[in-house]
Amino acid sequence: MTGVAGRDEEKIVLAKIEKSGEPELVAVYGRRRVGKTYLIRNLFTERMAFELSGLNNAILEQQLENFAAALTIATCSQPLTPPAT
After folding, report:
1. Would residue 83 count as lying in a domain?
2. How many domains does the chain have?
3. Are 26 and 14 in contact (CB under 8 A)?
């Protein structure tokens, strides 16, 4: 994972997820502007099927609607089965 300094614990966890060989869901949360998105994109760019950033100061219903809309768009524009390797 080039370009990411520090975050050793997080890199270990994410490397295990990447090597699992199974479909995985990764939810990363924390303070704003600390590099969460950069860290995930740096490791999973080629293998990421779906990405979503939550809405700031939104209620649960709005977050769920945002998630559903983004997932609908992602599944309509991408194949539902993984490409053959």
Report:
1. no
2. 1
3. yes
25-57 confidence digits (pLDDT tens)? 888 888 888 888 888 888 887 777 788 888 889
How large is the C-alpha radius of gyration of the chain? Answer: 14
Alpha-helix residue ranges (DSSP H) falling in 1-85: 8-19, 36-44, 60-77
Distance CA 83, CA 85 (A): 6
Domain limits for position 13: 8-77
- What does DSSP assign to residue 83? P
Distance between CA atoms of residues 30 and 17, nearest Å: 19
Q: Is residue 85 part of a domain?
A: no
pLDDT of residue 75: 85
Residue closest to 40 by CA, chosen among 73, 4, 74? 4
